[in-house]
Amino acid sequence: MIQVDIYQAIEELAEGRVFALVAPQGTAVPYLVHSLPSRNSDDTIAGMGATRASVQLDAYAHSQLEADQLLEAAIDALDTLDPGELTQLQDYETDTALYRATAELTIWH
Fold it and tell me: Strands 31-44 and 84-93, how do they pair?
């Protein structure tokens, strides 16, 4: 299952503060959140083919540099899953006073 493969690749980052979809309130910073916003399967003559998973990684930290470094470590950790179509974004969340570095990428499985 792709969710398991993703988690196993990144679980040791941020001292293990890696969560699916949302981090618990009060989580120590920095931390990493991962999600699969969409998955699409190819149709083949024999039935369902490969699945294209859109993966989103969000790294949260007290500085943009720290968030960027955590995100780069997560992207590097996923290298064995052969990701592609990488888009990176940056943001500052005023309600939490945290910087966020986001990566959106695709993994075929």
Answer: unpaired
**In whole angstroms, what is the distance from residue 109 CA to residue 88 CA?**
22
For the chain, domains (ranges, CATH) are 2-108 (3.30.2000.30)
Q: What secondary structure letter does DSSP report for 109?
A: -
What mean pLDDT, rounded, does the chain reach?
92
Task: For residue 2, give the 3-state DSSP assignment.
Answer: helix
pLDDT band at 45 (very low <50, low <70, confident <90, very high): low
81 neighbors 6 (Cβ within 8 angstroms):
yes
User: To 10 degrees, what angle do helices 64-77 and 2-10 make?
Assistant: 130
Q: With the CA atoms of 106, 43, 21 and 10 taken in that order, what torsion angle do they form, in degrees rounded to the nearest 10? A: -50
- Are 24 and 63 in contact by the 8 Å Cβ rule? The answer is no
